[in-house]
Amino acid sequence: MSDGLYDEHPAFYDVLQxxxxxxxxxxxxxxxxxxxxxxxxxxxxxxxGTGEHACRFADLGLNVVSVxxxxxxxxxARTKCDLDFRRDxxxxxxxxxxxxxxxxxxGVVNHLAPDELVPSLSAVADRLAPGGVFVFDNAPLPxxxxxxxLAIGSTEAGDYARxxxxxxxxxxxxxxxxxxxTPDGEFFxxxxxxxxxxxxxxxxxxxxxxxxxxxxxxxxxxxxxxVFEAVLPGT
Length: 235
Ligand SMILES: C[S@@+](CC[C@H](N)C(=O)[O-])C[C@H]1O[C@@H](n2cnc3c(N)ncnc32)[C@H](O)[C@@H]1O
Description:
The chain is α/β, with parallel strands linked by helices. Helix content is 27%, strand content 34%. It folds into 2 domains: 2-141 and 197-231, Rossmann fold; 149-194. Strand 5 (99-104), helix 6 and strand 6 form a beta-alpha-beta unit. The termini are far apart. The site of S-adenosylmethionine has 19 residues, from helix 4.
């Protein structure tokens, strides 16, 4: 496994994601938090990456703890806002609750192995207060893999190119392979296992852990993720 992006070039993540509508994501999550009591204060963010959502959650007045396993991503996040950014990962979380809400936005769950799904959802449930809500998405990964595709993007420093694809593996996962050439003449490799969970598998795991579920078609128009609103019973 080689996480060239997350480990060696985390700042380039923001170049690749420069068009991402973070405010759109936040719109749905804020609506869900409002619907579930409206008085959420403590928020746990899992897989915060470079902190774009985290800083926006803090601007909403939430008391945010954001975790990610990649120190480089956290370092980039720390340059953006002064929050509690910690190195931590599902399923063996060190952070302690209780939190009123938790989020894991944009394929974070797809980084888990199949046998880590229930332990991860349990770890989140253990850190939520009664009635707490967990909002996260399932990325629509191709279970049978896909062909290598080239993406070219422009930055102020010049163009970059990225060739990427998913290769199915015997364990039902995908081997994500990407080669990126940056405008400054460098290149790096990403290779990491991803899991194409079915929505049904996630729903069943949430049910087993004790969550009640509402489904959403993405964070907004044009988003093909399934977003889960998973709520624990209240007191
Ligand atoms: C596609 S990025 C999304 C980052 C951020 N949420 C965003 O929307 O920009 C997926 C993130 O999940 C993190 N991640 C990978 N494995 C994880 C795990 N086991 N627990 C928590 N986060 C994880 C990665 O380090 C990465 O920052």
